[in-house]
Amino acid sequence: MNAIMVTPNICEGRSLEVVEAVAAEVRSVKGVRLMNVSSDANHNRSVLSYIGSKEAVLAASFRMAAKTVELIDMRLHSGEHPRVGAVDAVPFIPVGGTDMSEAVETAHTFGRFMGSLGIPVYYYGEADTNPRENKAQVGKGKLTQELLGEYEGLPEKLKDDSWPPDEGPRIFSAKSGACTVGARGQLICFNVNLGTTDVAVAKRIARAVRFSGGGLRDVQAIGLALESQGVVQVSMMTSRVETTPLPMMLEAVRNQAARYGVPVVGTEINGPIPLSSLEDVFRHYLQAHDFSLDQIVENGLLALAGDVGETR
Predict the structure, then answer these.
(1) For residues 285 and 144, what is the distance between their CA atoms, to the nearest angstrom?
(2) CATH H-level superfamily of 3-183
(3) pTM as predicted
């Protein structure tokens, strides 16, 4: 099946009423499946994950963004995660047989919509056609939000002739900030919580495990404090789960944490993940080296449903 998945990050993770109002806009669009909503109060950030045809996900994204811009005021926002705007990051991800070029086209259509709302837009990933340092720096483990100086740095960044927005006005929107819009392959956001309140430890571990620090290939990582939980977090992203699987990421953090006498106390996966990632977990932690996704009952049911549909 050809489809596009979208995982917008919005800058609200504490008011679940606001998050639900945004999610309701996505649910209202026929042909879109809202897969998951993940909210984090410390990050003050939520990630919505939905999937559908290009036309359907665009309609849902327009409604999602309009409601987010209406309800969120960045002048009142605070949180641990780097951010630049209310609709902070919107990646379009081709799935099934969809070509990346379709995801890029969809991202650019959405970017023009955000620009029409008076919000500066910066493209990243495959959607980025600007030759500035953006792509290279993101590849070195830098988040686009950090490169832009976050929300507080936007007024100066917008004055920088080497960083004009790709869409929208070159004017700071105090209420909504800016928006980053991308097209990319599937990516996993994997967070590891550590039993200490010393955020310096999390930051040192993040530097050690991310690719730019000589760590795991294609892994970005930052260290954050989760004050309400009394722990710190190593927040990681990877787009190459086939070469850097989840067990490898967890064990890399665990090994580094042992140097400081700090235990791993929990993990989080934000947003959807490919089933193959769970296969890696089975093989590593259960030592089930011959395990196959064909053994999953639901996979057999899905395949059977597809076979039945083809015979009709």
Answers:
(1) 34
(2) Formiminotransferase, N-terminal subdomain (3.30.990.10)
(3) 0.80
Q: Which contacts of 32-37 are long-range, i.e. CB under 8 A and separated by 24 or more positions?
A: 32/56, 32/57, 32/59, 32/60, 35/5, 35/272, 36/271, 36/272
Amino acid type, 138: V
Neighbouring CB atoms inside 10 A of 159's CB total 11
CA distance 225 to 79: 10
* Distance separating alpha carbons of residues 242 and 141, to the nearest angstrom: 18
Q: Kindly tell me the burial class for residue 15, based on how many C-beta atoms sit within 10 Å of its own C-beta (0-12, 13-18, 19 or more).
A: middle
Q: How far apart are CA 173 and CA 85, in angstroms?
A: 9
Contact 103/195 with Cβ under 8 angstroms?
Answer: no
What's the burial of 49, exposed, middle or buried (CB within 10 Å: 0-12/13-18/19+)?
Answer: buried
Residues 207, 224: Cα–Cα separation, whole Å: 12
Domain ranges of the chain: 3-183, 188-273, 279-312
Cβ atoms of residues 268 and 236 within 8 Å? no
Enumerate the active-site residues.
81
Q: What is the pLDDT of residues 86-105, one digit of tens each?
A: 999 999 999 988 999 999 99
- Rounded Cα distance, 239 and 243, in Å: 9
Residue 42 has pLDDT above 50, yes or no: yes
In the chain, the percentage of residues whose pLDDT exceeds 90 is 67
Tell me the pairing of strands 9-10 and 121-125.
unpaired
Q: Residue 50 is encoded by which pair of tokens? A: 């939905």
For the packed helices 199-209 and 246-258, what is the interaxial angle rounded to 10 degrees?
130
Taking phi over 0 as left and psi of -120 to 50 as alpha, with beta for the rest, 146 belongs to alpha
* Closest C-alpha among 139, 156, 262, 252 to residue 206: 252
* Nearest-angstrom CA–CA distance, 305 and 312: 11
Tokens of 87: 């609709």
CATH number of 188-273: 3.30.70.670
Q: Tens digit of pLDDT for each residue in 234-282? A: 999 987 777 889 999 999 999 999 999 999 999 999 878 888 888 888 8
